[in-house]
Amino acid sequence: MEELAKEPGRKLSKKLETFQDVVIQDSTIVRFHSSLADKFPAVRSRTVAAGVKVGVMVSAVANGPRTVALYSEKTAEIKTLKIGPWIKDRILLVDLGFYKTQMFARVEENEGYFVSRIRKNMDPILVSVEEGLSKTKSKEFAGKPVSECIKQLSGKDIDAVVKIEFKRREHKGKQKQDEMIVRLVAVYNDEDEKYHIYITNIQKDILNAKDIANLYGARWDIELLFKELKSKYSLDVLETKNVQVIEALIWTAILTRIVSIRIYSLVRNSTTYPEKMARYTQLR
């Protein structure tokens, strides 16, 4: 699957041409027959149930899964994501289930990029406000928590630099205190009538505040993928009690989707006159 993701595929937009790819990590729960509850115990279930967590990383360039792995349903989201040299020059989009400053630091250390919503309980310290406030106001808020600034914005978007303190992973029984300087973007959402706040390490001369918000909106693609896998490729139709068959059916659903997308792309690109082309769905 990773090799397929390396093949030439969709091109990123001009604003993103300096990056190799945009990847999205998330997971979905697949339920099994209740008789397998001892081996695959479900969580957040009022009755006896069994299931696994299917962790998926989607690639924008490959237009589909880059990696897929199966985990115990009780596995924390952050443990399904392994950051390494592969992240270099790629943008990672994650939801709050993966929010961990340690992880963001590893992405940056491996020369990668990230965009995430910020947790409600996080209130980083403003280092500077680059856009959205006057110089006087910017100086006034420097060194104060972001929440104090947000209260006085009155619907204006801001682009700022903040400091986030965190603890490094434990090493030889000790945890080192560290801090990370990141970009914070607060964009007012008219529909929700509140600010959507993001942190990223992408420079503002590459993507402005609205661009960051729009880019994060692409994270919805992975939710649509999970919905498609379950509704069209029977990912959650696993009535057998045979564990090997269950695993085979999960992989069959995912691989069928990958193949159908590739065939669909070949059909679309094979015609000389696209305006005369018949409409094909990914299942035809």
Write the layout of secondary structure elements.
Elements: H1 2-6, E1 21-32, E2 50-59, E3 64-72, E4 90-94, H2 101-109, E5 113-117, E6 125-131, H3 135-141, H4 146-150, E7 158-167, E8 177-189, E9 194-200, H5 209-217, H6 220-231, H7 243-270
Parallel strand pairs: 1-4, 4-5
Antiparallel strand pairs: 1-2, 2-3, 5-9, 6-7, 7-8, 8-9
Summarize the structure.
By secondary structure, the protein is α+β, with helices and mostly antiparallel strands. It contains seven helices and nine strands.
Would you mind describing this structure in some detail?
By secondary structure, the protein is α+β, with helices and mostly antiparallel strands. The protein folds into two domains: 1-95 and 219-266, no CATH class; 118-207, no CATH class. Helix content is 26%, strand content 27%. The model is unreliable at 280-284 (pLDDT under 50). Strands 3-2-1-4-5-9-8-7-6 form a nine-stranded mixed β-sheet. The chain contains seven helices and nine strands. One of its GO terms (biological process) is DNA transposition. Residues 19-256 form the Transposase IS4-like domain. This is Mobile element protein. GO terms for molecular function: DNA binding; transposase activity. InterPro entries: RNaseH-like_sf, Transpos_IS4, Transposase_11.
